[in-house]
Automatic annotation (TrEMBL):
One Pfam match: PGP_phosphatase
InterPro entries the record matches: HAD-like_sf, HAD_sf, PGP_Pase, PGPP1/Gep4
Protein name listed in UniProt: HAD superfamily (Subfamily IIIA) phosphatase, TIGR01668
GO molecular function terms listed in the Swiss-Prot or TrEMBL record: phosphatidylglycerophosphatase activity
Species for this entry: Caldicellulosiruptor saccharolyticus (strain ATCC 43494 / DSM 8903 / Tp8T 6331)
Amino acid sequence: MLKRFKPDIICNNIFEIDLKKLKSRGINYLIIDIDNTLVPWGELEIKSEVFSWIKKAQELGFRICLVSNNQKERVKKIENVLGLPSVYNAKKPLKSGFLKASYILHEGKKNHQTAVIGDQFFTDVIGAKRLRLFVILVRPLKEREFFVTRINRIFERRILKYYMKDESK
C-alpha cells in the first residue's frame, strides 16, 4: 500500500525541480503548498529566489495555484504578494482543496497534467496521490512547524526511509 503513495520525485527544495523536464512529461499545471515549501512556516517574507522561480515557471507556460491548510488571512497575504490564485483552509489530505485548485487551473475541466509540490507526506503527498496526480516532495524549509506537523514528521521520516531503501534495491 505504501508504494501507491510514493512521491514521484523527492528533492531538497523547489529550486532543484527541473521545470523543463516536467514540461517534457506533459505537466502544465502546478499546485504548490505554501508553508515550508515556498515560505518558512509562520513567516510572510518571500525570498527573491522564490519570485524568480515562479516567474521562470510561468515563462515556461505553467499555470500555478497555491494550496494551504492555513487560514484565509495568511494565505491571502501570500497570494497577493505572489500574484497567484490560492485555496486556503484546504483540509489536505482530503481531495476538496486539490479539486478546488484544479478547478481554478483547468477552468472546471478534469486534467491530470498537474504536479503537486509540497513538503509533507501526510497532507500533500497522500492528498495528491489519492487523485492520481504527479507529486514532488521537497524537504521543509525550516524545522519550526505547527506541533501536529512535528509529530507527523516522526512517522514521515520512517516512511521516507522505507522509500529510499526500496529505491536502492
